[in-house]
Every structure is written in C-alpha cells, then in structure tokens.
Design a protein that fits this description.
Helices cover about 30% and strands about 25% of the residues. It is α+β, with helices and mostly antiparallel strands and about 400 residues long. The protein folds into two domains: about 15-250, Jelly Rolls (Sandwich), CATH 2.60.120; about 290-395, Jelly Rolls (Sandwich). The strands form four sheets. Strands 11, 12, 13, 14, 15 and 16 form a six-stranded antiparallel sheet that branches. A four-stranded antiparallel sheet has the order 3-10-5-8. A hairpin with a 6-residue loop joins strand 13 and strand 14. The termini are far apart. Mean pLDDT is about 75; it is low at about 1-10, about 50-115 and about 395-398.
C-alpha cells in the first residue's frame, strides 16, 4: 500500500444532504430514528436528486401539539421544547392547528444547522428594550399568553421578552418572511390573517395553513440557524410583534433547554421510567409542563374524569382516599414520585383526591402524551395499581 494517499475529501452534496436530514429530525422528532432515516433517504433517492422531496409523508407536529400532547410539546416544549419552521402552530388550546407537511428544501446556499448551546450563554449580554406605551404592553401581553414557546420562561424572563419585542404593522400583500431567506426575527401575531406557503415548484406555491389573529412563526430558523422553510404573506392589515434572534436564543431557547435538563434529571430518578431509553425519556421531558400549587390546594378530586398525570418536582403531595369524615390520608409523596396515572391506565374516574402539602410544584403530562410515551412502563403501573388496591382495603375503603 506504499504510495497510497487516502482521499478524505467530502463528496459533493453530502453536507446539504445530511444537514437537511438533521433539520427534518429536529422538526419531526421521530420515535424510530432508523426507520425515519430509511424513509427520508429513500425519498431523496427516488426523486433522483437531493433536496426535492415534496409532499413527504412525515407530518410535522405543531408546537401546540408538542406542549399539550407530549409537545402538545413541545409534547408541546420543550423543548425542547415544542415546532415546525415558520409554521410553528403555537396557538391556543381551542384552536389547535392540524399537522402540516414539511418539504425538504431544494438546493440552496450552505448554512450550518447549528443548535444554540445555552451553556455558552453570554451572561453579560446587554438587555434590549423597545419602549412601549401601557396600551401596547397590554396588547402584547394578551398576544403572548398562549404562545407555548414562552411556557418554559420564568416571570422575569417574560418581562425581558416583553421589553425586547417591537411592533410591526403590516399591510395586505406584505411578505413577512420568504422561504429560503436567512432568519432574523421570531413573530407573534396580535392581529391579521396570514397564509403559510411552501414552494411546490419553480414558480408555484402551496398553501399549508392560515393564521387568524393568533399564533406565532419563525422560530426554527433562529434556533438552528437554517433558512426559512416557508413564506408568510399577510392577507389583511395586521399587527405583529417581533423578537430578534439574539434575544430569542438567549432567553427563549435557553429557558427551554434548562427546563429540559431539569426535567431529564427529575425523570432519571423515577424508577418506573427505567424501562425508557434516553431518547424516550428526552421526549417525555419535552412533554412536561410545570404547575405550582399552594398549601392544601386540591390538585385532583376523587370521582373526576382523568386527563393527565403528574411528577412531583418540589414539595410534598398528600393522597387522600374517601370523602368527608371518612377520608383517610394514605400517602405523602415527595420529589421524584408521581401520581394520577392509575385513572389513565384503567380509563376510570379518579379514585382518590390529591392535595399540596405546603407549596409544591408538579410536572404535568397530559393524556395524549401519556398514551404515546409511557407504553413501555404500562406493566409497572399496573403492578402499582395492585398496591393501591391493597391500601384501600387496609383503610376499610373497599
């Protein structure tokens, strides 16, 4: 082999092909990565050239779905957090957006799909403030309240976001963002109707969604430093609130990443979840949403229908069987414990009441994410139900 010189040059098109695969993975968060990769690259091959996979079969999960089902995300955040590039369906719970199909982008200039690293956060970054009237602040708060990307933020961080956002008024026909352009701002809709369009050919665009007076878009290009994946056009006069990339990354993405790490650490201490892979546990972390409770606040009422379960993040939780004078406290839960899963497993009403003992904080997992993410743990949860039935008998409540 003397005289042989290995050629380690990167084949033409490899960078973009792998980059687009990574972005699709980040967008769609497939449960079976290997199967997703096979399907993705098969489509690339069948199309005869890289980057022309239109109308793929992978339905992108909206941000709202991630935080509420997982993310509703997220299943929502997470996520972290919780969405589809420039079609981030961050909307109110009663206005869930149906999944949209995300095409792989056609060939374009190379842009590294780098993820923001919160550990490298610039703690000396100067606070950005765009002055607002009280009337503007009130309108912006109302527009922000259902944006699931902000759910991971602490109150002081939300104030920083509120200060940093600036108003942008649009006219009918304005092209707010253009597919293929570099990302600059994240947008929250206060008012107006906006079409989401994707390129369906050299001169054709396909409408995949319409926002009406609520929602947000533009986050994925900022999070992963990739071009816009859709065009957003105003169909009417409207008002948008914009947040630039630097502030978005520092506050919103950083908060979501810290939240995910915190949840992953919490879940690692839950014996029931030992059956989950690291990937499954990360998806579960993205699906959780924190809720704080005051002393003696009722979290679950016996007899109610079940729509979620909880993991204890901080403080103590009382489990009470029975009602009124016949009620009995059977257990006190601490950080790392969980409750509320039995009614979901059995598809029955709540069989006990649950109260906060002092101030407490719990991570909530809704029923959709529970069914999707905790299948591997179902046998363990069913065994725990047998222990619960024994407690009821011990207290004479059977």
């Amino acid at each position: 082999m003397s005289g042989y010189v290995a050629d380690f040059s990167v084949p033409q098109g490899l960078h973009e092909m792998l980059q687009e695969f990574v972005v699709q993975c980040l967008v769609e968060k497939p449960e079976d990565l290997a199967a997703f990769a096979v399907e993705h690259f098969t489509k690339v091959r069948n199309n005869g050239k890289h980057g022309n996979v239109e109308g793929g079969t992978h339905a992108t999960r909206p941000l709202a779905e991630e935080n509420n089902n997982s993310r509703t995300k997220a299943e929502k955040s997470t996520a972290i957090v919780n969405g589809a590039e420039d079609m981030a369906d961050t909307v109110s719970d009663d206005e869930m957006v149906p999944p949209v199909r995300m095409p792989v982008r056609s060939r374009r200039r190379a842009v590294a799909a780098e993820t923001y690293d919160p550990s490298k956060e610039d703690k000396e970054a100067k606070k950005v403030v765009h002055p607002k009237t009280e009337e503007q602040r009130s309108r912006l708060k109302h527009a922000m309240k259902n944006i699931l990307l902000f759910k991971a933020c602490e109150p002081e961080q939300l104030q920083d976001i509120l200060d940093a956002m600036f108003e942008r008024k649009v006219q009918k026909g304005d092209e707010v963002i253009t597919q293929g352009d570099d990302g600059d701002n994240f947008y929250v809709i206060e008012l107006g109707t906006y079409d989401v369009l994707i390129n369906a050919g050299e001169r054709e665009r396909k409408k995949v969604h319409t926002f009406v007076d609520s929602g947000s878009f533009g986050e994925l290009a900022l999070m992963y430093n990739c071009p816009r994946n859709a065009t957003i056009i105003a169909l009417s006069q409207g008002i948008l609130w914009a947040l630039d990339q630097a502030v978005f990354r520092r506050i919103v993405v950083g908060a979501a990443a810290r939240k995910r790490r915190s949840y992953e650490s919490l879940l690692e201490g839950v014996p029931m979840l030992a059956e989950l892979t690291d990937y499954e546990r990360a998806n579960l972390a993205d699906a959780l949403e924190s809720t704080a409770f005051e002393n003696n606040e009722c979290i679950i009422t016996q007899g109610d229908s079940a729509d979620c379960m909880y993991f204890v993040e901080d403080g103590y939780i009382r489990i009470v069987l029975g009602r009124g004078a016949e009620s009995k406290e059977i257990s006190v839960l601490k950080k790392g414990d969980y409750f509320g899963e039995m009614a979901l497993v059995m598809n029955q009403p709540r069989s006990a009441s649950v109260y906060a003992k002092g101030k407490a904080k719990c991570a909530k997992l809704d029923v959709g994410a529970f069914e999707r993410l905790l299948g591997p743990c179902m046998d363990i949860m069913k065994r725990n139900i047998e222990n619960y039935d024994s407690n009821r008998k011990a207290f004479g409540l059977e």
